[in-house]
Amino acid sequence: MPSVSESSATEGLARFETPRVVNNPVGWGPISIPDRFKDIPYQPFSKSDNLGQITDWTGSLLNERSKYRSNYHQQFGSGAHYSYYHEEDDTTFQLVDTTKPQRSLYQRSRARYQNRRNQRPTHRVQDPKTGRITVMPKYNNTRRNHWNSRNDNKNQVKLKSSVEVRKDWEMQVEIEFSQISKLQLPYPAKEVVTLAECGTVEHYDKKYDRITAKAERPLQTSNRVFHNVSTTDDSVIRELVKEAQVFATDSILSTIMTCPRSYYSWDIIIQRIGSKLFFDKRDDSEFDLLTVNETANELPGGEGGSNSMNKLAVEATLINQNFSQQCLKREQKQFARPNPFVSKEDPEEPSSVCYRYRKFPLLGPGEAYTVICRTQVDAVTSSSTGEEQLMCIKALNEWDLKGGNSEWRQKLDTQRGDILTTEMKNNKCKLAKWTVSSILAGADLLKFGYITRSMPRSSSESIGHAILSTQQFIPKQFAAQISLDMNNAWGILRVIVDKCMQLKDGKYVLYKEPAKPILRIYKVPQNTFEENDDSDVDQD
């Protein structure tokens, strides 16, 4: 038993009391709130919160805080613990301001517009299924129909197909324009070789460069003969058949290389014979007719009338032929070989033309091909240094005379750029074809003539035409002006050639549907499009 002195000594020493340990069987942390923290509100917070301001009495930071409120609202709550609630809420209290607020000019204009909008006539429409009545505003139907007809003009005009797709045709390939519109293939300009030059051309008459809209000159009809011979009927191409694998004319290649710009329908015959590929056209087709306003917002009328698509195409083609022969002098230049499509017995005078047979390397991934194309130029001219230059001549024609007045006659001398820009928009595909053909031919110049209609003085007279002005471009520079990428054009041709080279020997049709950005290749019977279906095909 300890003594009294020992017990007093023990009381003076420090003691260790074992703390109360709470066991949480579910997780980690306390299972209850300590008594000293029971009535104190607690608000979770983020360590990244800005604590620089205690309160905001002006509300200037309300919008600024709302930007970041959603970042932590879901995680930490809305902070309603510290909200202030008045015990006696004066709901009937209202601060009345008797001064009239000043509104800005914009607010007054907006109010007047809103009042006019509210005063529009309305009509009630009842849903037959639910019986619900809805108040709808009444619009000016005339104005609405005008804009609908303007925007939906392309859908209203019925476009005909260039050829009827028969039941026995088998589709082999389908290509969308979106797949080929961004292709790129370098254009090997230095490796192009001119194999033959045939025909006779005349010199361009520079007097036509001084024609103005105030001093116009009537367009004369030419009696010369124009030859649009197909690829397989060309005797010169038959001589050069061992020089390449792909054969075509400039009109066919330009149509393929600019196909993403086309809207109308067209078709091209493809002959696969061994390792050779021939692109050709049908004898009874309208392939050589020029289109008018193909890419405009408002297409020309359908069947019937002087402004129908077919009649406008014939008119534009004749204007182009007549102008290309009228603006020439009678000074001829004879090339090494005569015109292959003219014989000495022909009584009619041929047109001024030089056919240039040129060889192009078609590079790219895989096997390299060689293309022989028959191109043509219309005239020659002399530069300021006396150098002889080759020229392609084309004509742009005005056909829509509003009220009998020619807009070109009024604006061509002073606003020629605006008129050319409008033509680039309405005839984007045709201008691209002309540019590609002139580049393939190696022409130095591309001459445009502006032709308009001359209204007849009486009903017995026919519609005439007048030359208002001319304009000259370098083909490659004009290609950049109309956003024509020749590398993309060669890339498109390369894809078409690759697809055709994968097909078996036979006859095919490359078909562009009207108003659809799709190309299709059909396999057709060998005697398709021939006058005598029983005749055999000459493959020599």
Helix count, per DSSP? 14
> Which stretches are poorly predicted, pLDDT < 50 over at least 5 residues?
67-78, 142-151, 532-540
Estimate percent helicity.
Answer: 25-40%
Q: Give the overall shape.
A: extended
Ends apart, CA distance between termini: 137 Å
What share of residues are in beta strands? 15-25%
Radius of gyration: 41 Å
Mean pLDDT value = 82
Helix/strand/pairing class, anyone?
A: alpha+beta
**What composes the largest sheet?**
15 strands, mixed
Number of strands: 17
Topology:
Blueprint: H1 4-11, H2 62-76, H3 105-118, E1 122-126, E2 133-137, H4 141-151, H5 153-156, E3 170-176, H6 177-180, E4 193-204, E5 217-218, H7 235-239, E6 246-249, H8 250-257, E7 266-273, E8 276-280, H9 309-326, E9 328-334, E10 353-362, E11 369-377, E12 379-382, E13 388-398, H10 407-411, H11 416-426, H12 428-441, E14 445-454, E15 464-473, H13 475-481, H14 486-501, E16 506-512, E17 518-524
Parallel strand pairs: 4-12, 6-8, 6-11, 13-14
Antiparallel strand pairs: 1-2, 3-17, 4-9, 4-10, 5-15, 7-8, 7-16, 10-11, 12-13, 14-15, 16-17
Helix pairs in contact: 8-12, 8-14, 12-13
